[in-house]
Amino acid sequence: MKALRVMAIVICLAIKTHSKFLSRCELVLILQRSGMDGYAGYNLADWVCLAYYVSGFNTAAVTYSSDGTTEYGIFQLNSGFWCADGYSKTRNLCDLPCRDLLTDQIQDDIVCLKRAAVGPDGLDTWMEWRDHCRNRDLSHWIAGCNL
Fold first, then answer.
1. Counting beta carbons within 10 angstroms of the beta carbon of residue 125, is it exposed (0 to 12), middle (13 to 18) or buried (19 or more)?
2. Which domains does the chain have, with CATH numbers?
């Protein structure tokens, strides 16, 4: 298992990605244009809060989980369910390679996030959202973004 994890790290480093850290308002505007305000009962501030706490707005964030799966991209979508990384046993519910979630083009991330958000747990699937965003005033996440 350790060899697979090392191999996954090497491959992630070798893949040429065009990643960047999005600004808060840049992400707000992308999400708004993508129809995320009100999607699955969540507003723009919910999505922005989620992205901040899971990736720090980093489009190329990769986090390795103790269960052998990996989270990818700005929304940290898990390889066990949402994408195929070639190492984790996956359901690949978004029908895409995980490396596609590591670029600065986040439309595929948003399409996949929409699928995850309509699941039975919604954003509660992300511990970071539960701990930092749920049932809180999140208006500061979209303030000053010229909506």
1. middle
2. 2-141 (1.10.530.10)
pLDDT in tens, 92-129: 999 999 999 999 999 999 999 999 999 999 999 999 99
19-76 residue pLDDT tens: 689 999 999 999 999 999 999 999 999 999 999 999 999 999 999 999 999 999 999 9
Tell me which residue of 100, 40, 41, 38 sits closest to 75, measured CA to CA: 100
CA gap 147, 131 in Å, rounded: 27
Query: Looking at residue 58, what DSSP letter applies?
Result: B
pTM of the model: 0.86
Residue at token pair 């990605």: 17
N-terminal to C-terminal alpha carbon distance within the chain: 47
Cβ–Cβ under 8 Å, residues 108 and 119: no
Q: In the block, which residue shows the tokens 């701990």?
A: 131
